[in-house]
Amino acid sequence: MPGCILRGATVLTMNDALDQVEGPVVVRDGVIVQVGGPEPEGLPAIDVSGCVVLPGFVQTHVHLCQTIFRGAADDLALLAWLRQRVWPMEAAHDDVSLRVSTQLAVHELLRTGTTSVLTMETVHGTEVVLETLAASGLRATVGKCLMDSDDAAPSRLKQPVRPAMDEALALRAAWDGAAGGRIRVALAPRFAVSCSRELLEATAAVADAHTLLVHTHASEQRDEIAVVRAIAGMGNLAYLADTGLATSRLCAAHCVWVDDAEQALMAEHDVKVMHCPGSNLKLGSGLAPVVEMRARGITVSLGADGAACNNRLDMFDEMRLAATLQAVRLGPGTLPAREVVWMATRAGARTLGLDSVIGQVSPGFRADLIAVDVSGPDVAPSMDPYSSLVYACRGTDVRVTMVDGDVLVRDGMHRDVDALALAVGARHQAQRLRARAGL
């Protein structure tokens, strides 16, 4: 629609002052033009009474291609999880299964309030993911997976450096800035275990030449770190820095096992960290030092990771876990609810390099907005909206999800999506894919 008014909610602006506003949010041509004040005439209104309106969640680490692996790789540690389940299934993907997996992910993400993602896909077929995302309305920064080593990886997932970079740059030329700017392309070397030094150095050079984000995994689990040390003779973050990757455009998922020196390195180079507490728990990886990293000025955002290692893509789960796990580590209140909502919105926008575009409800920002119902008995009395969002609300409490002013979810229903048919199709494609993978 060309414009609309969200009426009747408390607005959590997530601006620098964390202002809360009682009044309408006015959207025109995909942009927020007014927050509070009198309602203008001539625009349709959506009544969101009983809700809080805030920026849509920004998930900075997901794998859309893994959504139809949900439940197929449980109860394994990271390297076994990859080598025995995830890599064989990624290698078995075809265009149909990739499209359905992406559609399934988008449905869950939008319905539970995520409006932007940074996603690492598999080695082949990323153009199918991009086509699906462009049609979906979701804002996404997408990278095809880059990997060329690890003897345990299927041959289809190992691609030499030159063709890998050529394909990544072809995707950038075709898709970066597509769908009115909603779609962007990044480089996505999987992690140091499955990438040669030549590939990591080439990634750093291409990222510098084309000003691209680099999306990778780092220091997720101790076994991974031991492999990297055997390969490189140094720690994970030091190795990434040694290859030229440690810049403000490096987005490193997990960073569970990072010591003081590695944290200092990340702070010095403004490396972004994507915290995935649900995945870290399910894979038994550990508890990330989130409070310490944030105290150093490191930008720490949130992501669910993939459905193969979390089984949910709901940011409300990740917010609650992020807060409570730091309470276990360091004591209650060490990561307050307000800071967790900041991580889910403003820190995510900064990680994507979009902090002047999304992440707050302020005039001039893109209208990526959600309305979350805090009036129900499971949330009442909702005395503090930040506490309600982090500790009481669920994804099912999202009433409206809007991206670029386009209302994609209303009254909890995803527009133009037959959820039952989607689930049936996903089950069918998952069975076919697992058969191809020999699982």
UniProtKB/TrEMBL annotation:
InterPro entries: Amidohydro-rel, Metal-dep_hydrolase_composite, Metal_Hydrolase, MTA/SAH_deaminase. The keyword Hydrolase applies. Its EC number is 3.5.4.28. It is an enzyme of class 3 (hydrolase). Keywords: Hydrolase. Residues 52-407 form the Amidohydrolase-related domain. The keyword Hydrolase applies. GO terms for molecular function: S-adenosylhomocysteine deaminase activity. This is 5-methylthioadenosine/S-adenosylhomocysteine deaminase. The gene is mtaD_2.
